[in-house]
Batch of 3 targets.
Target 1
Amino acid sequence: MPRILRWIAISLGSIVAVVIGIGLGLFALGKVKADELPEFTLQPPLIPSDRASIARGRHLAEAITLCTECHQNGLRGRKLDLPPLVGTLVAPNLTAGKGGVGGRYTAADWDRAVRHGIAKDGRKLVLMPSQYYARMTDSDFAALVSFLNSLTPVDNELPPSTIGPIGNALLGAGRFPFAADVVDHAEVGQNPVTPGVTEEYGSYLTTLANCRGCHGPDLRGTTGLIGDLRGTTRLIGPLTAPSLVDSTRSWSADEFRQTIRNGRMPSGRPLDPQKMPWPRLANLTDDELNAVFEYVRSISAP
Ligand code: HEC
Ligand code: HEC
């Protein structure tokens, strides 16, 4: 073999070895991270069962927090479309039917899973955006659970989630952190907010509705290979979400509401529902959309 070829072969070989080494290291780190559990005390509020609370809970699950985007309508669960090496992620059946967790979950269990990112069996949840739900007030959380407890039982048995080697390496590299490692557990339920057409409430809704997960923590847009993009069927892949601060600069509140409601920009350009979950967000009330708009407008341009 000519010397130059041999040299190329050796350097390629060592690059491959280093890459495999890093991959294995990250894989191991991902496993370790999955086993370290944070310590905190659960303080779930009392769960009501009146109709107004259940209705608020339904609105939260279907229009605001987008539980139904992943766990499907009726929250009967589904397998998410991910490349097998990343993992087989299943958003479980949340009803009390066969294969569902609903019948077994107490208020404390819902709290541990939804606002702290840890399943009843102590598993740190992957992909489920608890880092945003951690912000949920006690009264909204109580309403959400009253709705979850009222779900019609649906029989839907699904396999458990498994994380593949690439998924583990991503976790190890911190590219896809467990929500349980990011949440400030002591702060959960400590920050009430009054509903209204205010920046403060708009900021709250923006957190719960995952707008930040896709459009960036400060809504100035994201680009990235996997980023924080959650919620849609295209969970992993090169995806970007525009800066809401820039897009909406010249819009009226009315144009903003119309864009989310109809999935069409003031310019007439349609929004792809596979990327931007507008068909669900379209159910936000006028006041809620106005509050989000107030908040977006309050973020001053650079
Ligand atoms: C982006 C997708 C996504 C959204 C949105 C989402 N989840 Fe999940 N959820 C998942 C996935 C995936 C799992 C399984 C994760 C795992 O096994 O590591 C899960 C797990 C759970 C579990 C744990 C059940 C168990 O014991 O295995 C509960 C409870 C739950 N979700 C409730 C909710 C509720 C309530 C909402 C809305 C407030 C919600 N989820 C929103 C994806 C999502
Ligand atoms: C799952 C990711 C995701 C979530 C959650 C999400 N968006 Fe989007 N959004 C996108 C993507 C991607 C686009 C670009 C879609 C396209 O061009 O077809 C977009 C487009 C938009 C646009 C049009 C702006 C433009 O210049 O294209 C607005 C307005 C918007 N989103 C507002 C919101 C608000 C408000 C929330 C929360 C209530 C939200 N989005 C939640 C991903 C998301």
Target 2
Amino acid sequence: MQAITHFFSGIFISILLEPLGTTWLRFLLITGLCILSHFLIDALAKITYHPADAKWDDAFWVSWHVIVYIGSVACAIIFIRSYFFGMLVSMIPDIYDWGIIRGVRAYKRKHNPAVEQDQEKKQFMEGWEFHVLVDKFRERFLSFLPDLNHEAVGILPEIAIWITCILGVVFIS
Ligand SMILES: [Zn+2]
């Protein structure tokens, strides 16, 4: 899912737990719930518009990504002071998979190309990616969902998550 969707869930969870003040329990719960929400939100990625490759010649793809990226940056700027922790932990699974694991793989490839060309050899931390777990969960429990990764209508479930988080905040505050 898009960063803004995880940001919204992180902000929502932070506000939800505000009555706990700045106790360690609140930070612990924010961490656990944000990682869980990242898992569940990504599990729904199948019903959202998410073409695997960039489609620069597709006006819809470009427009949607402009909205999402501007929205993500605006959301980060507006809320980062108050909800930095929740927003950060809501992105931990992506930082772990795309940043750390892929980063180490790229580093290894660069410094030892011969090893990486060996297709039989397991990649660094193969099978230990957060999103591999998400994929397995989705296949096991959500296989009935339609695949909207290439359908424009797939932006609606993502927008629905934003609205749910915003309404949730309005409702509890
Ligand atoms: Zn993710």
Target 3
Amino acid sequence: MEAYLAVAMTIRPILVIPDEKLRQQTELVTAFDAELQTLIEDMFETMYAAPGIGLAAPQIGVMKRLCVVDVSKRDDEEVPMALINPQITWSSEETSLYEEGCLSIPDYYEEVERPAKIRVSYQDRAGKAQEIEADGVLATCIQHEIDHLDGVLFIDHISKLKRDMVWKKYVKLLKRDGPQTYTPKPKMPPADDGDGVENLGEL
Ligand SMILES: [Zn+2]
């Protein structure tokens, strides 16, 4: 990591639905150059400031196939992971349920059922091929972020009724106030709502 310490980091503005970039496919990353390293550092900086546990490039308007995640608890040491060109190569039949949120759909949380375990192949920031198996919060977080890279949002995994409701709310906000794009500043994590299902915060 030492080689990247000199990179200046910038918190980037986060796009909010119904921004059409959040519905588009991303392009494979082919250049593992200084520009990519800066992008990765900016994505981490933006994710931590939000605060979030994951961020995909389209959420800051960059249509490239990469995301960053860090599911370590707030008080523990940060465990940052940058996944470049990630692909899910296997997922379990067993599922798990988490309450998800999304930095691009502020103030909305809903339970989502996803495969409990996944295997993911990806490239690290140096371009080296890697593979990981993930379960628990990490498995859900990575699936949420990879969805973003394919223009899919977590509300696509909930009922149409609920999805239409939240979508219409943001279409209305756009018409009334313009794009809801925001630049995060450090704030407190969302409070536990006491329903017994772990709230992941925003991804
Ligand atoms: Zn998200």
